[in-house]
Amino acid sequence: MSLDPSLSIKALAALAAVVLLAVAALRALRAATGTGKPGGQRRLALQEVLPLDPKRRLLLVRCDGRDLLLLTGGAGDVSLGWLPAPGDAA
User: Which InterPro entries did the record assign (predicted)?
Assistant: First the structure.
C-alpha cells in the first residue's frame, strides 16, 4: 500500500491552512479584547473598588492618566466626576 504524493501535498496544505486560520483567529481575539496592543500600554484601568453595601460599589477608574469616580449598582450607575490631579490646587 503506497501513498499518492499528491495526497501528502494536499494533507500538508490543509494543515498549513488550519494553522494560518488559528493564528488569524488569535490575532483577531487580541485586537477585539485590547490585550494585543503594542507596548502593553492601556488607556483604562480599574484602580480600586470599595463595596458600600451588598449592591452598590464605588469605583476608582484611571483613564488617560486621570482618575474618575463611579458609583455602580443602584437604580442607575452614576459618574461622580473626575478627581483633581495630586499636584492641582483645589
Answer: Flagellar_biosynth_FliO (IPR022781)
